[in-house]
Amino acid sequence: MESHKLYVGNINHSMTEENLREVFSGFGKLTSVKIIRDRGFGFVAYATLEEAEEARKAMAGKEFEGRTLRVEDARPIYQNERKP
User: Fold this and answer.
1) How many whole angstroms separate alpha carbon 44 and alpha carbon 33?
2) Is the predicted pLDDT of residue 1 greater than 50, yes or no?
3) pLDDT of residue 58
């Protein structure tokens, strides 16, 4: 089963992976949840593309714990590398 991952930015530094799971679980079956500590972002992955798209549309720009969430399709690491 292929997973569909979303980047979730501008999260509160006190948020836990369990909190993030609770916030995003209403849109479908989550296959993984990961917060990058001390960076203010994380990732959630869904079982289907449709679930991921629904979550992205519903949560992008939503305020949560005093911060406006940035929710986008996650990009592979190599696309984030800077070129000399």
Assistant:
1) 5
2) no
3) 97
